[in-house]
Amino acid sequence: MAKTAKKDDDKRGAKGAAGHAYDASSITVLEGLEPVRKRPGMYIGTTGPEGLHHLVWEIFDNARDEAMGGYADDIEVALLPDGYVRVVDNGRGVPVGIHPKTKVSALETIMTTLHAGGKFGGEDSGYKVSGGLHGVGASVVNALSEHTKVVVHQDGGMHAQEYKIGKPLAKVKKVGSSKEHGTIVIFKPDATIFKEGIEWNLEKIVTHLRQQAYLVKGVRIAIFDARSAKDAFETETLFLRDQKLDVPSTTFYFEGGLKSLVAFYNKHQTPVHKNIFYVDRNQDNVEVEVAFQYVDDITPRITAFANNTYNSEGGTHITGFKTALTRSLNTYGRNANILKEKDENFTGDDVLEGITAVVSVKLPEIQFEGQTKAKLGSMEAQGAVGTVFGEALNAFLEENPDDARSIINKVLLALKARKAAKAAKDSVLRKGALEGMTLPGKLADCQTKSAEEGELFIVEGDSAGGSSKQGRDRRTQAILPLRGKILNVERARIDRMLASVEIRALVIAMGTAIGDVFDLSKLRYHKIIIATDADVDGAHIRTLLLTLLYRHFRPIIEGGFVYIAQPPLYKITKGKSIAYAYSDKEKEAVLKELGVAAAEVSENPLEGVDEAEGAEEEEVISTKKATKVNIQRYKGLGEMNPSELWETTMDPARRVLKQVSIDDAEGADRIFDILMGTDVASRKSFIQSNAKLANLDV
Q: For 286, phi and psi rounded to 5 degrees?
């Protein structure tokens, strides 16, 4: 094959497949910040909401690095009108003098040149530790912003420079005097890059900055929401709080470090042991900080940071943590004779069950896998964490025997449950194998064998199941009706789950198996669509299904394979014209198009309808032209006939589907704990706090 290819290349000579010359002139060289605007995803991951907020993290990280170096103790982030964001720190201020190599201001160099900053020259550069390896943060934000302004308070003066899509509008100039020191960065993302819109999620920003406040002890971090500020304010003054703005604000300041963060994460949990483990020590020029506590749960929650940058995919420091945890608990369990000779050793899965842990490392030369810093690649972190954490954990277990016994008993319970679950799972799989992996009888499968084309509708009840089976496209759409509400798996182990007929049917239908033999590549349908009624029971069933998928099939959600069907609430008929409305607002819009004023609409339930049975309601509205407008209010999918169900909920050309995603895994985890867990007081408080946001179907 290689020889044949070589011969073909020789025939083509210097011409490409299309006959175009391929020589030195074919090589495109992008200068300055052009590569960032050409391929923004390479630098911020995505141009969707995640990438948009990543701009804030990049500028905030620069301020935080000043604090980590001991040069700042006050950081302020503000959302301003017209989509602007303002980030301030009281650090040393970006140097404004002429850079010896670029012959322009150091500020301009940092803001307009990739890989320029104070984080590449080792300790002499002024940063022993920083969150940015690539040094592209400020320049990337500048390149992807339609307008940026930097104001530096330094050495008695106030200097400023403005930029448009990364290019300076003028040289750095002194704009006033100042007794303060620090840096202000104001930017407005470019709407031509972020085409989904410049919409800042305040809750997301507050959550991220709260996390950072725990990580940098003794630093004040404030967030202002000044987007709708009525009074004028001065943006070049260092801190907005000094101007006493009448806008919402939140301030974080913690001295407890990761110990406080673990306590915060476990606020809605029941701890297994009293004392939170904590260590903060330097090993071979790597600062290691670890805190953990076990709770009465089966889900592990491990959060990782490297140089205060959140690593969603973990990395070498987490590998060191898991190895040391498993080794230390096995050693203590054997020495204390809690783990008997006949017992097998704890596995990594056993020791992680129910743990809430935060692992943070800080090191001078840091290596991330990718610019978004999702995974740490520095190998020295693994050894440092293993040594520091292992030694400290051994001492903790010896010094706190009650806590140690509670932890070992918790892990021992996990070991026994794992063996029981494996037996139950093997039984299910073995049974399936004997039956030729027979699909559940209630599943009406589709004809296609292509997972990319296949859709699985999980519907509520036999009635909806019957209608959807008749109305579907048999070639691509499979129907699995579920009877009643499935088991709440938030606190259920896998053996109890698999004892549930409904859950077992769903697991076999999806084809991925479950637990340690889960295989995403065997997913039989690339659209798992949850279709429940638009009432309280339907919402509950949907929540139970999402809990199951989040806890045990999370890669299916992360892969974008889970959807929620949006059946219409109303069918509006006027003569031969039929329209469907998915909300009250949409209903009003349809009526307006039909020439029916809102004042003419009255609630007229259809006579003879028994509402206790959940039947639909009908309104009959007479227009001025005496043409009747019929409005049917659907109570459930089962009330639709097959053609209506196809037309409104199943037809790919007209249906409305909501894709389920995990934008904030920690927040989602916490909500599942509150809503589906055993802490009744927290659930009651959550419901009371969010009651006004609910759309009640009364």
A: -120, 120
**Residue 455, Cβ density class (10 Å: 0-12 exposed, 13-18 middle, ≥19 buried):** buried
Give the span between the Cα atoms of 206 and 553, in whole angstroms. 29
- At 611, phi and psi to the nearest 5? -65, -25
Q: Which domains does the chain have, with CATH numbers?
A: 36-252 (3.30.565.10), 266-420 (3.30.230.10), 443-567+637-662 (3.40.50.670), 570-606+614-633 (no CATH), 670-698 (no CATH)
Percent of the chain scoring above 70 in pLDDT: 80
Q: Which residues of 502-525 are buried (b: 16+ CB within 10 A; e: fewer)?
A: bbbbbbbbbbbbbbeebeeeebbb
- Burial class of residue 319, CB neighbours in 10 A (0-12, 13-18, 19+): middle
Within 10 A of 159 (CB to CB), how many other CB atoms are there?
23
Secondary structure (DSSP) of 646-692: IIIII-TTT--EEE---S-HHHHHHHHHHHHSS-HHHHHHHHHHHGG
Q: Please tell me what DSSP assigns to residue 485.
A: P
CA distance 686 to 516: 34
Taking residue 155's Cβ as centre, other Cβ atoms within 10 Å add up to 12
Q: Which residues are catalytic?
A: 460, 533, 535, 537
Model confidence pLDDT, tens digit, residues 590-612: 888 877 754 455 444 433 333 33
Is residue 195 exposed (0-12), middle (13-18) or buried (19+ Cβ within 10 Å)?
exposed
Amino acid at 87: V
CA dist., res. 277 & res. 407, Å (int): 11
The dihedral formed by the CA atoms of 536, 537, 542 and 548, expressed in degrees to the nearest 10: 130
Lookup: tokens for 48: 């969707």
Run of H or E including 37: helix 34-38
Encoding tokens for residue 2?
């290689």
- Given a contact cutoff of 8 angstroms between Cβ atoms, the answer to whether 127 and 118 are in contact is yes
**Whole-number Cα distances in Å, 280 to 215, 315, 531, 597:** 12, 19, 49, 68
DSSP designation for 121: S
Report the largest interatomic distance among the alpha carbons of the chain, rounded to a whole angstrom. 90
Do 324 and 390 contact (CB within 8 A), yes or no?
yes
> What are 36-87's pLDDT values in tens digits?
888 888 888 889 998 999 999 999 999 998 998 889 999 999 999 999 999 9
Give CA–CA dist 287/384, Å, rounded: 8
Lowest mean pLDDT among 331-335, 379-383, 635-639: 635-639
